[in-house]
Amino acid sequence: xxxxVESGGGLVQAGGSLRLSCVCSESIFRLNVMGWYRQAxxxxxxxxxxxxxxxxxxxxxxxxxxxxxxxxxxxxTVYLQMNSLKPEDTAVYxxxxxxxxxxxxxxxxxxxxxxxxxx
Length: 119
Description:
Blueprint: E1 4-7, E2 10-13, E3 18-24, E4 33-39, E5 46-52, E6 57-59, E7 67-72, E8 77-82, E9 91-101, E10 104-109, E11 113-118
Parallel strand pairs: 2-11
Antiparallel strand pairs: 1-3, 3-8, 4-5, 4-9, 5-6, 7-8, 9-10, 9-11
């Protein structure tokens, strides 16, 4: 069972920066994809950014050019660097991991970390 623990959320003013971290309980080499999702009050959870085991990244249009996802394989950690934050970035941010074992796709989620951007 893969466990994900997020940290780094908080309160920041518009235009500021935060870096989220997601530590995985096992080697992230074994995971197909890791990513960050977010859910604002009254809205559905949405994709923010993903990174594959090969390092290919993907971003939601709303965060392109402002957010950067990266991984440190030695620390089994994925990061989300968030710059130029806007009030609409306010949400609970969740770390996600996908792993294929015996041809079955497993998805794992962290507990979430709150990001609040004040105007």
